[in-house]
Specification:
Length: about 120
């Protein structure tokens, strides 16, 4: 459990680091990749934590619904947008879409940090 939380924390720190750099195409692409890692580890960390609470979820969407019910995350439309953006980035090779998502990434950091804190506090 602690290993995935540590990975989530590292991925999130890496995302913040990339977003703090001067924007270039390479930084944008690296930030999007780090965003994908962070979201993937967020839901997997949530899944593992919820299992310790005898709550089962098997997909990112179901885990986020259970996280809301459990009180790990707040009802915020940014969660849906973040999950949609993550799904888009995995299959998007369109520079305009990548640029739009890149500009939204800073708004996701507080949500991911709050989730990480809630999981850590619950351990």
């Amino acid at each position: 459990m602690h290993e995935i939380i540590t990975s989530f924390k590292k991925a999130l720190n890496g995302l913040e680091e990339a977003l703090g750099m001067k924007p270039t195409d390479i930084i944008r692409d690296a930030s999007i990749q780090r965003f994908e890692f962070s979201v993937e580890l967020a839901w997997k960390s949530t899944q593992k934590f919820l299992r310790t609470q005898n709550v089962e979820c098997n997909s990112p969407k179901s885990c986020m619904k259970e996280a809301f019910k459990f009180g790990l995350i707040q009802d915020d439309p940014l969660w849906v947008q973040m999950m949609d953006d993550k799904n888009l980035t995995v299959h998007t090779y369109d520079e305009a879409t990548a640029e739009k998502i890149y500009k939204r990434l800073p708004s996701y950091i507080p949500l991911l940090k709050k989730l990480l804190e809630a999981i850590q506090d619950g351990l």
